[in-house]
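Work package 3, deliverable 3.1, input record:
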Amino acid sequence: MHGYSGDKQAYLTRLRRIEGQIRGLQRMVDDDAYCIDVLTQVSAATRALQAVALGLLEEHISHCVADAISTGGPEADAKVKEASAAIARLVRS
Amino acid sequence: MHGYSGDKQAYLTRLRRIEGQIRGLQRMVDDDAYCIDVLTQVSAATRALQAVALGLLEEHISHCVADAISTGGPEADAKVKEASAAIARLVRS
Amino acid sequence: MHGYSGDKQAYLTRLRRIEGQIRGLQRMVDDDAYCIDVLTQVSAATRALQAVALGLLEEHISHCVADAISTGGPEADAKVKEASAAIARLVRS
Amino acid sequence: MHGYSGDKQAYLTRLRRIEGQIRGLQRMVDDDAYCIDVLTQVSAATRALQAVALGLLEEHISHCVADAISTGGPEADAKVKEASAAIARLVRS
């Protein structure tokens, strides 16, 4: 069980919608849609993916990281460092 | 025909690979994968999407925008503004 | 006292270096430097600012948020939500 | 003369305002301001820097890149590639 497990169905629904956006992008490219329209849809899919990431991150901090902090010990510090590295990857992607 | 039309198959291949990444994310969530591992894959998919966008943008500038500039007239200015707005959406997404 | 207080001097040094980068940008613009060279320096300053933000965020989570979680109660949840909102602003900027 | 030369004073004014934001950040850190408030100001400064970059880029494309395209020859292609690399650095920073 992880932070997002309670909202698993909601995350799956969002990821399926993003999969639909990516398939829509394939249709646009296949139909020679105008470049700027393709780019607008790429930006929309990117934002949807980042919203999923931000949701997962919030639940990760409030569950997994919080549990490690409540338990204490060296594990708490490792969890904060791990979450910080994930935040850095997200900010830079 | 648009800037990316010559590379259409390459773009479709990249978008299909991204679709595979999104389906992989659904499997990870469905299998209760560790949050940080899910986030790492979300970052990878986001970067792949942005690489597609940067490729489309470069071809758009070197074809559609360049053609409008070569032709001259008010259209050239409109194309530069439109491309700039797409770049801004990309930077902010 | 906050998460970053122990590293205050290091943060001040980094912020002074960023201030120097911004003044360098003013000199470049004033000297009519080539646009792409100005943009390269803007990207460098942006990355330096984001590195400061990621550092502050890690210390905030490992101190302020961790303290609230250890204490427990509604404050813990509020701190996680506040940190998540700051992460979202960072990802979207 | 470059794309931004006509707006040089406006860019200098914006960069001086960003310099003020960075000095404000130093005061906040020096005064032990709350981490989240510091982060909010870092996000604001980052957005202001990126707005400067987007402005410079638009003027670069509509002047330097457009001139190279109008002149034609291998230089046009080099300018588009150079601008695309700058856009990529911006998207990834």
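Residues 5-92 of chain C form a domain with the Methane Monooxygenase Hydroxylase; Chain G, domain 1 fold (CATH 1.20.58.1000).
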